[in-house]
Amino acid sequence: MKRPFFTTPCDTVWRPKEPPLSMAREVEEIVRKNGAVPATIGILQGQIHVGLTDEELEFLARSKNAVKVSRRDFPFVLSQGLSGGTTVSGTMIAAHKAGIPVFVTGGIGGVHREGENTMDVSADLTELGRTPVAVVSAGAKSILDIGRTLEYLETQGVCVAAFGESREFPAFFSRQSGFQAPYHVRDEEEAAKLIDSALGLGLSSGVLIAVPCPQERAASGQVIEEAIQQALSEARSKGITGKEVTPFLLQKLTELTDGKSLDSNLALIQNNAKVGSCIAVALSKLQKAKRKGNLLGQEDMTAPQPVVIGGINVDFVAKAQNPEILDMSAVLQLEEKSTATYCAVITSAGELSVGLGDMDIHHQITEQYVSQFKENLCQAPLVCIDGNVPLSTIQYICQLAREHQLAVCYEPTDENKASKPFLSDSWKALTYISPNLQELRAINRTLGNPVPAELPSRLEDVVQTAAALACPLLAHLHCVVVTLGSHGILLCGKSLGGSISLCPGAHEQAAAAAAASLCAAHYPTIPISREEIVNVSGAGDSLMAGILAGMLAKHDTDTCVRMGLLAASLSLRSYEPISPVISTSSVSQEQVKSRRWPEAKHSCHNIQSRPCQKPSDCGGCLGLYTCKLPPGTCNLKAVSRQRGRPSPTLLKTSLEKENVESPGTGLAEQDCVGDLLLKVGAEPQISFI
């Protein structure tokens, strides 16, 4: 899955609750004005929504049957198709799963007064102890036992910091609670550094940033406390318990303070949105600077890393029956530019039905932009580039490859973009390409080679066609990986000891001793039932990721290809284009060795091929450098063939075996390989430009 660059300062979450609909819209606007992206979280008809439209906000605000959703409530609410607003606990869960690090709310829940007797402790506190999200709030609600709440947060390992010049822990409506926060941060930059440190340590706990209500709209602590005591007394007399206590007390406080508490509530929410969005922007800038420093300021002793020139796509996939955030640590981002998107409708068999994409961001990957990373490129053990990138950029990379002997893998992307490097001699500097059969035909057509009008579907014919179309490219390319869908892959390249070498250096050493021969090997796919196939859109990317990861780890050819097949099979079973299960442990040499694999079939002979002088005028021409006429019956000398001596396991192709006139040249049998595309694995680390 090729994913283009995406830039946004950060995502900030707030949750709809007491404020009216107009306040919800106002808070989102505050977040936008401060450079962040609001992603309001809610449950609509049994579905978790991260980022609500205006219509969805209105639906949730006006719903009379909306429920309060915390961690414990998710299974029931989702299974029953209910709608509701999420608590701090519920919002943290959704935000974390969506990859959003900063969450803004009014105030957190905590230990209720007399909690030592009732054991009424909010799930917000335990969630802060086990979910790594930064929560920006006006402290804990005044109706709670703030001292015990802070003690409980300490027990849960939650880092708590007051925001501003004072360590005074705020009490929601009031700026003072009588308790000190363990730490304090003076501004958004200090808060961002604190959050980044917590996230960088990989702790499972969250961070609480306590922001006091603005001075001019804060309520008097004494007035609020008196109202709380009266409201608590009434709640006890009415037998109100559990999760109904907090909304009752807040409503009662509004009545008892003649609306002063509500005014403070709205003011602190607005202020929290402003402070939280500024913290989110500062955090994003900090993390972006660290990523850029890692890419551009690598130590001399650091081993050169592969470079991928292409983009990050956000794929939206829907299947006809019944989408984790990408790790951006090695991805450069373009400011003020939108990530490419691709929306695909998948049939019940997992095949693509309809696809619609916005790939305009790729036009920004210009020769000038890429050239600033020339040093990284020239030291990279592998450079990957695809057909979405502008032609001038592809030609620049090919020029660097020619001048610095770089290994370059080109992924054609689709039939219309496949031929970009082949419009000139640039393609001769490529090392690997990974086309499917349609793309391979388009490439040969661009080069002026004979191509079949129709592509076959029977395995034997598919293999024959793929081998014949790959053959003319191997005069300059080191290896052609032809992806054949359910038929597997055909690996075509130079032989080394009877098998195909993926390492250009190894081939050059072999070629020094003797003339290298061309070879083809067909690898069947891992058997997967039709029912197991969920989505085919990322299988090809996963395949090439596994192959290239194996090659970079210097594994043998069979292991590399099977790592690719294993990665592809995982993505075929995944609702996400690239399976989140794929890792260096799930796709590895050890995993390959632990499985039984269908035998790969090799065909290696000394071969040469040349086009017929007049292929369209001969009734015996198959249009692919092959002739079906018996030996000696054609005086055009279309192609010379030489009898091969394959082993019993070799896959036969349509290439004739009879000796013919014109000695000294020959055309060997070739086989084919299945459907695997391009995304490079996590080890070794990849740099995305």
From TrEMBL:
Keyword Repeat on entry: no
Classification via InterPro entries: Carboh/pur_kinase_PfkB_CS, Indigdn_synthA-like, PfkB_dom, PsuG, Ribokinase-like
Matches recorded under Gene3D superfamilies: 3.40.1190.20, Indigoidine synthase domain
Domain of life: Eukaryota
Alphabetized PROSITE patterns for the sequence: PFKB_KINASES_2 (PS00584)
Domain (Carbohydrate kinase PfkB) ranges: 317-580
Protein name in UniProt: Pseudouridine-metabolizing bifunctional protein C1861.05-like isoform X1
Lineage: Eukaryota, Metazoa, Chordata, Craniata, Vertebrata
